[in-house]
Amino acid sequence: MKNVAILAVALIVVAGCAAPTGVITAGGSQVELRQMQSRDYETLDKRGTLRSVVATLQDLGFVIDKADFELATISATKVQSYEIRMTVTVRERERERLSVRANARFNEDPIEDPKAYQDFFAALDKAMFLTLHHVD
């Protein structure tokens, strides 16, 4: 079942340019999991970042369930013969940076495959580049 989840996520997420990292094993730590789920961006434009997250999720075939710009969270679902839910949170960090954290679930199981998050962030990186450089 876990292999099906990994395959499903790998098939639905756009292939990106992110450099691969080591695979987190079932015994991987929460710190490792959180690290692969997070990426920092050098911007304080929280609204623009949230718009980029929404656009990225939609481009990847997700339907936005809830977008709360006050709390800076986006929840989305992709349903085919399986269900993937993703929640993305944006928060301010030190030194004019925003941190984006994605948390994905396949049916009710957390997705711990680094490739799924690498692909999501590769797509988000492209959207953020376009947003930060005001390219339409």
Task: Provide structural commentary.
The chain is 38% helix and 29% strand. It starts with a helix and ends with a helix. Strand 3 and strand 4 form a beta hairpin. The chain is built from four helices and six strands. The protein has one domain: Kinase associated domain 1, KA1 (TATA-Binding Protein, 2-Layer Sandwich). It is α+β, with helices and mostly antiparallel strands. Strands 1, 2, 3, 4, 5 and 6 form a six-stranded antiparallel β-sheet that branches.
Secondary-structure content class: alpha+beta
Strand content: 25-35%
* Amino-to-carboxy terminus distance: 40 Å
Average pLDDT, to the nearest integer?
81
Q: Might you state the CATH topology name?
A: TATA-Binding Protein
The run of helices and strands is: HHEHEEEEEH
Provide the CATH top-level class: Alpha Beta
Uncertain spans: 1-26
Oligomeric composition of the shown chains: single chain
Compute the number of helices. Answer: 4
Report the C-alpha radius of gyration, rounded: 14 Å
CATH architecture: 2-Layer Sandwich
The CATH superfamily name is: Kinase associated domain 1, KA1
Largest sheet: 6 strands, antiparallel
The figure for the number of domains is: 1
Instruction: Give helix % range.
Output: 25-40%
